[in-house]
Specification:
Rossmann fold; alpha/beta; six-stranded mixed sheet; three-stranded antiparallel sheet
């Protein structure tokens, strides 16, 4: 990997698509027989490297494969082909509310999230006030997260993600759910994380944010990288495609 903390080579991810559940069952029970489902490649031959302290923007239309890519880098999904090497502790903000137990309180979910990230209860306790202060959800911290609005979900999720001392921060579109004040607060925190030497992979439809935060960008279309390089050039190309 050299100085790269994320190295992706010829990455592919295939999903089976079935017209009825029994087809999926047959494929699980008899993997060597002819499949009854249709194969869909969400990612095809994707390659890139992110150096330590770098920020990679991932852009593309809905359905281009951005969430799938981030989930594989984060370890949530496994690739079908190719290789992914990640050197460092990853903290991910992916789908809204992902990793939270709806019946647990915000406090309980903070401790559960810390345990998932490898922190001891004592270490999470030491970070709890910082997480609560950043989230700014007040007494809702003691309420089940199933009672939260989407804005409160993303507040707590981002506060957890940024306060577990990660080496790599992976962020999907979830931040777009928050209000303008909280988005600005998150952006400042991301910039602070980047200045401290943290590495970021950032997927967004906000071209201005990509230009401001990223030092390189890839454009996905139908699961493949069709453009990469300077954020301004890649985002301009992406916007020209939508015209």
């Amino acid at each position: 990997m050299g100085s790269s903390v994320i190295s992706v080579n010829d990455l592919g991810k295939r999903f089976g698509m079935y017209s009825k559940p029994s087809q999926r069952l047959w494929e699980i029970l008899f993997p060597f027989i002819k499949t009854h489902g249709r194969q869909f490649w969400a990612l095809k031959n994707v390659s890139f490297d992110v150096k330590k302290g770098g920020t990679l923007g991932v852009i593309g239309r809905n359905g281009s494969g951005k969430p799938t890519l981030l989930q594989i880098v984060s370890g949530v999904l496994c690739q079908t082909s190719g290789t992914v090497e990640v050197n460092g502790k990853v903290s991910a903000l992916l789908e809204l509310g992902a990793g939270f137990h709806p019946e647990f309180s915000g406090r309980d979910n903070v401790y559960m999230n810390g345990a998932i990230m490898g922190l001891t209860r004592k270490e999470t306790k030491a970070r709890f006030e910082a997480i609560a202060d950043f989230a700014e959800i007040g007494d809702f911290m003691e309420q089940p997260v199933k009672t939260y609005s989407s804005g409160m979900f993303v507040r707590l999720a981002f506060a957890c993600a940024i306060n577990v001392a990660p080496d790599i921060l992976v962020i999907d579109e979830a931040l777009s759910v928050g209000d303008a004040y909280f988005q600005h607060k998150c952006m400042n925190k991301i910039i602070e994380f980047r200045k401290s030497g943290g590495t970021i992979q950032f997927a967004s439809h906000d071209m201005d944010a990509v230009k401001r935060l990223c030092d390189s960008t890839i454009l996905l279309s139908n699961g493949a990288v069709i453009r990469s390089g300077d954020p301004a050039a890649v985002t301009d190309f992406c916007q020209s495609m939508d015209m």
